[in-house]
Write a structure and sequence with these properties.
Helix content is 43%, strand content 12%. The chain is α/β, with parallel strands linked by helices and 482 residues long.
């Protein structure tokens, strides 16, 4: 297995570095500029930077003292606690084991100071601030001690219980993805495009379509009849479909299938050199619009509900604007879940070649979380006022992930609704009514209230429309790159 892993990894890296010429996308250059601006702003005030460093050292010295007291069984204080919505440190061992408690608090202290330093930088424009904030959060998330075997008590317990079988199974999954090209996204993917997706909470999913940017999953229905209008979920391009389908008890995709929706989801492929010059518009046309066409071919439907999560919401909104511009009426509705609707100054691109969001007239549902620091709900609220069609805005409790992935069985956070859409976010919240339970139920009722939303049709199983036929019919849509 070690030799097999080494060979696959070497091939994967070779594909990534095959061309010596490196092409930078406009998005990548924008991120680089934001990071450079941050560095300049930090160095402009070296005293404040040194002060921030000393504060970090001070808190870690205090943590070391408290850890020693706890190790000796003496009373100690907790200096850093995870947010109540953070599920990463829910295992009791993070509190009971003094070493794990030290690692947890050290990580949280470092993350807190880094985030505070970014927030306190003066002179950074709003767009750069958002990009740096998002990248910092992703960086901190990647360094979480829960991502490493020796510092994750749940993984350690399962490893001992299974005698290491869980690690072997995980490695087999990784090798399987690399070997078939699912994770690499390269042209050498395996021929079995209809294989079951066995690594998610909803194991009965089938790959029915694939192109250079994504593959489309169709989840097996659980009801004898389903609603006529299918549902297409668009996750952020950075983590494929996993966030909406992690565990059985809170899988969004599983829940929509159980509610009677024919559910499809885009799974973005990892990029290689062949997509180095891919633009945001390509993700709209070859991603979302190609997926809509494939859903049509698979179900026979003429309209599709679209739902985008996080940056996927930006793709959905941009796609809806492009569809409106060419009078493409296949979208039945658009839903934006914890979405980052980011257009230059929320509309300056109108008439300048960019998507005109004001042309979007389909019913739109916006859900934001009140404690979402990456995509503040106030900004999402202002974006919700841009389309010209019927709008429903719902504000949920908790943060970006826990607020969105909040099944009806959880009943932890609740949500706020307002039947009118005032001009300012503060006015919306002041006049909103709070409800117990999950916003999922509110969204379901909203979908069913749309034209033909209640119409039921006999259920088809995934794969009833052959992928080869879908691929052939999609070839009539030329590749924008050609």
């Amino acid at each position: 297995m070690a030799q097999h892993a080494s060979r696959l990894l070497a091939g994967y890296l070779q594909r990534l570095t095959r061309n010596s010429r490196v092409a930078f996308s406009p998005e990548g250059l924008a991120v680089a500029k934001a990071c450079m601006d941050l560095s300049v702003r930090l160095l402009v005030n070296p005293y404040r930077l040194a002060q921030a460093q000393m504060e970090v050292v001070h808190d870690h010295l205090l943590l070391w003292r408290q850890a020693m007291l706890k190790a000796m069984g003496m009373p100690s204080q907790t200096l850093a606690e995870p947010d109540g919505e953070d599920p990463r440190f829910s295992d009791p061992a993070w509190e009971e084991n003094y070493l794990l408690d030290f690692i947890k608090q050290s990580y949280l202290i470092t993350a807190r100071h880094l985030q505070q330093t970014i927030e306190q930088v003066e002179g950074l424009d709003e767009a750069s601030q958002r990009q740096v904030r998002l990248l910092t959060q992703q960086y901190l998330d990647s360094l979480s001690p829960t991502h490493f075997i020796l510092t994750n008590p749940e993984v350690l317990h399962e490893t001992l219980h299974s005698k290491g079988r869980n690690l072997v199974d995980g490695l087999k999954i990784l090798l399987g993805e690399r070997e078939t090209g699912v994770a690499s996204g390269g042209p050498g993917a395996g021929p079995d495009e209809r294989r079951l997706v066995e690594y998610s909470a909803n194991p009965r999913g089938t790959v029915i379509f694939r192109n250079r940017l994504m593959q489309l999953l169709q989840f097996e229905p659980t009801t004898p009849r389903h609603y006529k209008i299918p549902l297409l979920l668009v996750p952020p391009s950075s983590n494929r479909y996993y966030l909406l389908d992690l565990r059985q008890d809170d899988s969004f995709a599983r829940w929509t299938s159980e509610q009677g929706f024919a559910t499809f989801m885009v799974s973005w492929l990892d990029p290689d050199e062949s997509v180095a010059r891919t633009t945001f518009e390509d993700f709209c046309t070859e991603g979302v619009m190609a997926a809509i066409t494939a859903v049509e071919q698979a179900t026979g439907a003429t309209r599709v509900h679209l739902a985008g999560y996080s940056i996927g919401g930006n793709l959905v909104m941009s796609t809806l604007a492009r569809m409106a511009a060419i009078d493409d009426q296949r979208a039945a509705s658009g839903s934006f879940l914890g979405a980052m609707i980011e257009f230059p100054d929320l509309g300056e691109c109108r008439g300048a070649g960019g998507p005109d969001v004001a042309q979007v007239t389909v019913p739109c549902y916006f859900f934001s979380s009140i404690d979402d620091h990456l995509s503040p709900w106030q900004r999402s609220y202002r974006a919700a006022r841009l389309p010209s069609g019927p709008i429903r805005f719902v504000l949920g409790g908790s943060g970006m992930f826990a607020g969105v992935v909040h099944p009806p069985s959880a009943r932890r956070y609740g949500y706020w609704t307002n039947e009118v859409l005032p001009e300012t976010p503060d006015d919306f919240l002041a006049g909103a009514a709070k409800h117990l339970g999950s916003w999922w139920d509110d969204w379901r009722q909203w979908l069913l209230a749309q034209p033909e939303g209640h119409v039921l049709v006999p259920t088809d199983m995934p794969g009833d429309a052959a992928p080869e036929m879908i691929q052939d019919k999609l070839r009539c849509h030329p590749d924008p790159q050609q």
